Amino acid sequence: MKAIRPSPVDQRSQAVGESSGIEEVPRANAREGASRDGAPRDGTPRGDALKQGAPKDAQEAPQGRPTGEYLALIALYNGVLGSALLAAKRTGRLPERPRIDDLALAALATQRLSRLVTKDRVTSAMRAPFTTYQGEGGPGEVEEAARGRGLRRVLGELLVCPFCIAQWIAGAFGCGWLFAPRATRFLASTFSVVALADLLQLAYAETASRLEE
Hints:
Blueprint: H1 8-20, H2 27-30, H3 46-53, H4 56-59, H5 67-90, H6 100-118, H7 124-127, E1 131-136, E2 142-146, H8 150-159, H9 162-179, H10 181-212
Helix pairs in contact: 5-9, 6-9, 6-10, 9-10
């Protein structure tokens, strides 16, 4: 059988490729896995393919914080407290300095009331319109998160944060001492006793668990 010899043109092309060290890639392989518009051939749109390779934090746009509602709460707090101080000064109710025992009662009562309002399992019924249940918390407490948008979300954030609600409770005690000191001392004393009783309950539970070990 007569052998087929390559033409001079083919020999020249092969020689050029070997001397340059570049392999000729078929056009079909160059286009493999992509269509004319740059999208993968599996049907995934180009934008989705880019998103799949992007970091998670780059895919999710950050939600705007409700700064307007925050400013409204700040204005409300300062307006009420400032008005109370001005009224107390005009009526001669504003003392020169607070009493030490009143400060101690207010601190204990504020701590206990802030946990009662934001974490207590029973008071979760009042927080339900603004929060969602997340799980169990400390003894007698639950963990929740704010829900919704705008003012609803801001109120939810306030109602699940004992550190945030504490200044509102402390401000309420301050106003109470200016205009109804006897009733305010009674309420502060009550919740201070509850706060100390909670500490004793926790200490008892810790001691009992260690004895059982």
